[in-house]
Amino acid sequence: MSVNPMSQPPASAALPAVRSGAPARSLPDFAIFAAVVALSAGAVAFLVHAEDQRVILAALLGLGLAWAAAARLRVIAAVERGSAAHPWPARMVMAGACAAVLVVLRQDNFGLLMLATVLIYATTCLGLTIQLGYAGLSNFAAAAFVGCGGYTAAAFGRIEGLALPDAAVILLGGVTAVAVGSALILPVLRTRGHYAALTTLAFGVMFNVFLDANELLGGPQGLKLAPINLFGWDFSQDPVLFGVEFSFYANYALLCLALTAGALVLAGLLDRSWMGIRLDAVRLDEVAAQVFGLRVARWKILAFTLGNALAGMAGAVYAKMTGFIAPNNFTLGDSLMMVSIVILGGIGNRWGVLPAALIVVLLPEKLQFIQEYRLLLFAVLVILVLVLSPGGLLPRRTRTLAGGAA
Amino acid sequence: MSMIGQHVLNGLMQGTIYGLVAMGFTIFFGVMNVIKFSHGDVLAFGAFGALVAAAGAAAAGLPPGLQLAAALAAAVGLTAALGAGIARALILPLRSAPPLNMLLMTMMVGTVIREAIRLFFPGGTNPQRFPSLLPSGGTTLGGVFVRTDGLILMAAGILLIALVHHVITRTRFGLAMRAVAEDPETARTMGVNFARIVPLTFALGSATAGFAGLLSGLYYSEINYGMGLLIAVIGFSAAIVGGLGNIWGAILGGYLFAGLQTAVVAALPGLSDYKNVFAFVAVIALITWRPTGLLAERASERV
Amino acid sequence: MSAAGGVILEARGLSVRFGGLLALNALDLTVRRGEVLGLIGPNGSGKTTFFNVTSGIYAAAAGRILLDGRDITREPAHNLARLGLARTFQRARLCLPLSVFDNIALGAQERLPQGLVDNLLRRRSLARDIEALAEEARTLARLFNPDLARRLSDPAIALGMIDRRRVEICRALIGRPKILLLDEPSAGMTHEETNQLVDEILAVQRRNGDLTIVIVEHEMGLIERITDRCIVLNYGRKICEGRFREVAADPTVREAYLGPS
């Protein structure tokens, strides 16, 4: 053993299990990490703000080339090492980048709404990452679970004389999604492969047919919702911070950001614990997992529940943000989009969800001339990724829990 | 009484279409272990191809009989070519990919077909009228009015099922197909040309979808670009409930699904909007009860 | 070597049925504590089926299995690890994309914290547990191959066949089983590799005197060197039992392997 890991003070109090690389390299790596985060934030702000179609296309081309170059020069690996070596400073850098994007886009209503939508998708897809990427449960009804949350928020808003605080409503969105999902637990546990895929697929379609036919939930016309008021923080007011005035959508963007960050932390903690190993074993080899004492059903239920809870909470926030929901928002097509995001990002890699959600949600909105062709191009894009680079943008790395090469 | 008879006839027609679609799913699965979810959109593609061919033949002044023949040739030919093309270009190269990737890929192929019809067919966003090319009218049997064209279509559907079954069980091609399904490696060493059999199988399965598209157009007199999506989910459900890889299971599943829908409409007319909700709940319950389908042999996992 | 101290595993009238086929046909056998027992027989004689039914993957059609006197016939697979049973698989069943450490840790999972709070929130104690288990895994891996002990962070897919077998055996041993079922450890390896692995297994068994090993194997040289006793199966029944030499000389065994002469 060249280095005894126990003799070093942990790099941080929160995640001492994460340790990597030789210390000498960690500073340049961290600088690369910070530079990449800053550049990404700049690119996001620029793309969201830009209007000229040619400028956007040029920027996209540039980003594509930058990505290819980064992959070539192993920048992504350096970024991973840099952030793993200094987790807390890394988090500060990311928080700073998010704040900077918010400040730059402070008056851009549409831009902020788009970003918040991206984050809603990202949160749901992090739930899917836990289900699909970790435990290997196929879920083709993610949009339906988002819808459970959305309709819960709408339904509670319509009950006269019942003024639940919105924080409780958002939580209840998650609880409803879990409760509805629990009806699917038995079929999900008993079936495998394509049979399991069908149960969720059939459920997703059924959910939509049900909403369309249900008068109480507004039928095809849907329901209206009031804006969020979180402990007196009125989301319909334009906030003023340090003398700078923001659009009221900044409230939602901030809340969605918190939700996504929470989901990222949850997925990360799960992955880097014994539970991560157990979920992986359930996905990779159920029989071997059982033989070594894993209660497979228990871990599948855990993954399914956590994923649906995230989708439901995201749905409640989404419904309140847009102020209106209809069955059309939660179709099979949306569920497929979410699965595509997970695979496009690199299945099982929680960070991959962010760029993938950005691409899938933002591009069609920004490129006006493809509006009509968005679904067609999206489908072609996913097919290309599946054929050419099935690992996605950020392929998942091998988990290394135990300290380096001892 | 006559109402019930009418429901039964409708259900049988619907079941024939579902059974044909489910049969396609089960053929693809049997040979390649894939779910080709674009199957429903291939059906829509066949229906639109038939529409164009029939319109063209009508414009050329051909009699209805030849219009029908043109529509049939287009529906079957175009879908067979499309199915073979998809197999050759996308399914064979990706056959070692995880099942989830394959499923997502075929879903996206379906989206491409669906969107292409919507965008590039003139007025594709709106439902299209399908010409009636079969003799209209009908007879009254035991108080039930029976549409002549309905009878013809149902007979044609059942005939096609029998034909496909014959091809699979009684021909050299069917033998090669079953050999590939059983064990691709051994089939290859026995001289079966894998790279040729797979596209041909997909052509056969897709042609049944094209035929079902034509049936559906002729019976309901209307087609639309999105018709394939729900049919795909239903056909997939039927194939799963019956047991993947089992042709009789698929057909049973198809009629069962139609039967469930019809039963809801007949017994609870007030809830007929919910017929698919009930049918899907039943499907989920059925596969929970029999996780490998009603007619499937229990696959023992080799350890 | 053979500190025979009573029966640890016992099958009584054990039958397993696949459709019309009786893979095990009223099989009776006993395994004694601390011995190395070879389970041999022609292909399809029921050796692996015996492992699968014992480890709870298949259900028995009739009969009973007793582990340490306790009836485990209907025990679900996931309870058997806790009762001291561990196994390897015919085709090494590692989780290939996972690291060597993750694979080995799977074998210890009975004593690792199960709850959300312990896993997600008590990160300091989690880090300590991880280091302790990594040290244990290193010690174990070093018994087989010092190089393997340095490769705990590598994905299992990067290992050669013999190292994958070693990881599989480490995964089975880290749970400190009472009885270890080895299913064809020589499959997919060269003759030299097999010999090496046999020495390593014997070394482990010697260090850990009360460990009972049941081994299914076609490589008769291996069986001869490693086992204290052999049981020969044919058509799901026990046809012979004894030391390898005696068994190998038995006419019924010869007939089972070579067909009636």
What do you see in this structure?
The complex is a heterotrimer of chains A (406), B (303) and C (261). Chain A contains 15 helices and six strands. With 406 residues, chain A is mainly α. In chain A, the strands form three sheets. A two-stranded antiparallel sheet of chain A has the order 1-6. Chain A is globular. The termini of chain A are close together. With 303 residues, chain B is mainly α. Residues 298-303 of chain B have low confidence and may be disordered. By secondary structure, chain C is of the alpha/beta class. Chain C has eleven helices and ten strands. Chain C has helices spanning 47-54, 77-80, 100-107, 116-121, 123-144, 146-149, 161-173, 191-207, 220-226, 244-249, 251-258; strands at 7-18, 21-32, 36-40, 62-67, 70-71, 85-87, 179-183, 212-216, 229-234, 237-242. The longest helix of chain C has 22 residues, at 123-144. The model of chain C has no long low-confidence stretch (mean pLDDT 87). The chains are: A mainly alpha (406), B mainly alpha (303), C alpha/beta (261). Chains A and C meet through α9, α10 and α11 of A and α2, α3, α4 and α5 of C.
Describe the structure concisely:
With 303 residues, chain B is mostly helical.
List keywords for this structure.
heterotrimer, A: 406 residues, mainly alpha, two-stranded antiparallel ribbon, two-stranded antiparallel sheet, 15 helices, 3% strand, globular, disordered N terminus, C: 261 residues, alpha/beta, four-stranded antiparallel β-sheet, 11 helices, 39% helix, 24% strand
| Helix-strand category of chain A | mainly alpha
Portion in beta strands of chain B = under 5%
Unreliable runs of chain B, pLDDT <50, ≥5 residues?
A: 298-303
Structural class of chain B: mainly alpha
Order of helices and strands of chain A: HHHHHHHHEEEEEHHHHEHHH
The termini of chain B sit apart by 56 Å
| Stretches with pLDDT under 50, minimum 5 residues of chain A | 1-22
Query: Roughly what is the average pLDDT of chain B, rounded to an integer?
Result: 88
Write the layout of secondary structure elements.
The complex is a heterotrimer of chains A (406), B (303) and C (261).
Chain A (H helix, E strand, L loop, with lengths): L22 H27 L3 H20 L2 H11 L1 H18 L4 H26 L7 H17 L7 H25 L2 H21 L9 E2 L4 E2 L2 E2 L5 E2 L2 E2 L3 H23 L2 H11 L1 H6 L4 H27 L1 E2 L6 H14 L7 H14 L7 H15 L18
Antiparallel strand pairs in A: 1-6, 2-3, 4-5
Chain B lengths: L1 H31 L6 H21 L4 H28 L7 H22 L7 E2 L8 E4 L2 E4 H23 L1 H11 L1 H6 L4 H27 L1 E2 L3 H16 L4 H21 L7 H15 L14
Antiparallel strand pairs in B: 1-4, 2-3
Helix pairs in contact in B: 1-5, 1-8, 1-9, 1-10, 2-3, 2-4, 2-8, 2-9, 3-8, 5-6, 5-8, 6-8, 9-10, 9-11, 10-11
Chain C lengths: L6 E12 L2 E12 L3 E5 L6 H8 L7 E6 L2 E2 L5 H4 L4 E3 L12 H8 L8 H6 L1 H22 L1 H4 L11 H13 L5 E5 L7 H17 L4 E5 L3 H7 L2 E6 L2 E6 L1 H6 L1 H8 L3
Parallel strand pairs in C: 3-8, 3-9, 6-7, 7-8
Antiparallel strand pairs in C: 1-2, 1-4, 4-5, 9-10
Helix pairs in contact in C: 3-7, 5-7
